[in-house]
Amino acid sequence: MNLSLNPRLILSLPILLFALTFPVFAQEGNGATSQPFSTAPYKVGEHLTYDVSFSNFMSVAHVEVQVMSSGVFESRDSIQLRAHVQTTGVVNVALFSINNDYTTYVDPTTGLPFHTQQIIRDATRSNDVSLDLTQPAGTDAIPSKQASFPGTYDFLSAFYRVRALPLTTGSFYKLTVRSESQTYQVEVRVTGNEVIKTNVGSFNTIVTQVHVTGNTYFKSAKAYFSDDQRHVPVLMIARVSTGDVKVELAGSEFIKSVASANPSPTPPVTVVATPTPTPRPKATPTPTPSIEDWPFTIGEQLNYQVFLGGSNTPVGLATFQVRARSRYFDRDGLYLMVTAETTGAVARLFVAKDTIESYVDPKSLLPYRTVLNLAEGKRRLNQTLTVNQDRGNATTDKGQRIEIPVGTHDYLSFFYVVRTFNLSPAKRSAIPMLVDGKPKTMFITAGKRETIELGEKKLSAIALSLTTDDPQSDKYQFRVWISDDRRRLPLRMTCQTELGPLKADLAIVPTAPQ
């Protein structure tokens, strides 16, 4: 089914994640006291990453939130919070590019914000907005005995403030949500507990049911918080008219704080365990250095339609994903995955469904573990390779050792590392790659800039020629067109096969009429 994504829908995704928990909170019951305030969610160094999916599109945006520092800002004790929202994959290419940053300074005793900064970017403009909020300080900030919170929360401070609530089963909260010029009425009910499985593990969670009224695409949603003192949002699912929107935890870690412009020096960060999952694959959070200068982001997903000959009917689909960054198999790594399968009439004649997972070093992008699950007709291959790049060998799960050159890539890491290369015209690079259990040398030659058409889009691309060290070096005539921008997206891939020319195009989703 070919779905269209409305830009307003994508812009509402961060609101789903953060803004369901805004200014006025009230709880059912006869007590008239203000709601408890826990400091657990405000631990300096906490860094949460979320992947946003829509309907059958597994990744359309990612969100990062972090407690940056604790100190003094504008002569007030404060905690600095920061968030980053960015569209990815098909949405980023076909519709628009969003790359926004939000910073909020909150009172450490109440969670109330008193200064916010926003940098709003899209494909054509950037807007930097700062706002001082008229919130009371000191003893004036302590609420009187009433059934609601005083003051106004922006989306970022509210994200943390709701986590600071007890969230006991049966609790019922009424919320008024304010975002830019929009006001939303939200009801949140804590309904119980449930074990939730995500890409980073299984969590015992607190289940909440959310209902929203107002000018919003999201009328109802479920939010799952980790059942511990931190109350980390693990999963949020909202139903819209064209499908489900899912916001899923992709990473949870503690990293060293980065000093903001004016705060006083912060005390040393105390590393606290993240919500205890049962990982799949086995992974535990690890302190992460500054994000590498990759042309891709955590959560990126690229979907390709595969065509045979001159037909306009797809015969297959392939999906490349940057799943997460964490600690895998006792070392820091990026978790990459590709799935490919035949579709339509071809699938009735020949069934193929392949999955490759690769765990790569974040700096070099060299693989240290590769998992292959290939099913092509009657052929089956289930194999795990452990790669020792220092010693120049790869060992299968059956104990077979393969000698390889130091710096050898697998199929999947090759796809990503090529995007980091200098692709100046006539530039030639060589990469050793493991192909069917044997090392091969791949030569990548950058050609001229071209304009190619994908759907109704005309895109500037760099043409690449891929050859091997075989006697017939260009037997399969591999060609790749990579976007001529910072993201270096593989837009089109072609090759020659025994059945005829094969072409894989990055899927472009048309924008719905406005």
How would you summarize this macromolecular structure in one to three sentences?
By secondary structure, the chain is mainly β.
Broad structural category: mainly beta
Helix percent band: under 10%
Number of helices: 5
Largest sheet composition: 15 strands, antiparallel
| Overall pLDDT level | 78
Count of strand segments: 27
Radius of gyration: 25 Å
Uncertain residue ranges = 1-33, 135-150, 257-274, 276-291, 509-514
**Strand portion:** over 45%
Distance between the termini: 20 Å
Coarse morphology: elongated
Oligomer: single chain
Structural write-up:
- A hairpin with a 2-residue loop joins strand 7 and strand 8 (182-198).
- The protein has 5 helices and 27 strands.
- The strands form 2 sheets. The protein has a 15-stranded antiparallel beta sheet that branches.
- The chain has 514 residues and is mainly β.
- The chain has helices at 7-18, 89-94, 155-163, 344-349, 411-417, and strands at 46-54, 57-73, 76-87, 99-106, 113-121, 126-132, 172-179, 182-198, 201-213, 220-226, 233-240, 243-254, 283-284, 301-308, 316-328, 331-342, 352-360, 367-376, 379-388, 393-396, 401-403, 428-435, 438-454, 457-468, 478-483, 490-497, 500-506.
- The model is unreliable at 1-33, 135-150, 257-274, 276-291 and 509-514 (pLDDT under 50).
Give me some keywords for this one.
mainly beta, 15-stranded antiparallel beta sheet, twelve-stranded antiparallel beta sheet, 50% strand
